[in-house]
Specification:
single chain; 1 helix; 12 strands; rod-shaped
């Protein structure tokens, strides 16, 4: 049996078409991985300024109940949000326990309140970037039942710390 040239040409063309069509849709798969990292910033120290005292014009006196407010402003100098968790206000003391700059005046002659009946005077909580908030404390003079003459006519320095 002899196959005609036309049929054999048709069979060859058909096989060639199927082969070309089959390879036209073939593909390979592969996998790959990559790594990278983002960089985080860090917290910035709080800026505390605008410290002003006001109150009893005659000054603090032992056991008199006279008080003065210590007002301040706290600023988040960071671009991101930071949380203010605590503010402490204390009388600055020398190594011997006296008020700094007032030898013989015991630092215990003064008490500082930063809250009253569960209400904080500090602006605790989250601060957006570059936001400022005001807070205050109250300072009074205790009656120690000892000679407090060294505490007369002094400026009582305070230290305000934020965390």
């Amino acid at each position: 049996m002899r196959i005609s040239k036309k049929i054999s040409s048709g069979i060859i063309a058909g096989v060639a078409t199927i082969t070309i069509a089959g390879t036209a849709f073939a593909f390979l798969t592969a996998t790959g991985t990559a790594e990278g990292a983002a960089t985080t910033g860090s917290a910035s120290p709080w800026k505390i300024d605008g410290v002003v005292t006001s109150g009893q014009p005659s000054g603090l006196l032992p056991g008199s109940g006279a008080q003065q407010a210590v007002n301040y402003t706290i600023t988040n100098v960071n671009d991101g949000v930071q949380a203010l968790n605590a503010v402490t206000v204390a009388v600055k003391t020398a190594d011997d326990g006296s008020v700094l700059g007032a030898p013989g005046c015991p630092a215990s002659s003064f008490s500082v309140m930063t809250s009253w009946q569960g209400q904080d005077f500090a602006p605790l909580g989250e601060f957006n970037g570059h936001a400022s908030k005001s807070g205050h404390a109250v300072i009074g003079m205790n009656n120690l039942h000892v000679n407090q003459d060294a505490c007369q006519n002094i400026n009582v320095p305070v230290l305000i710390s934020a965390s």
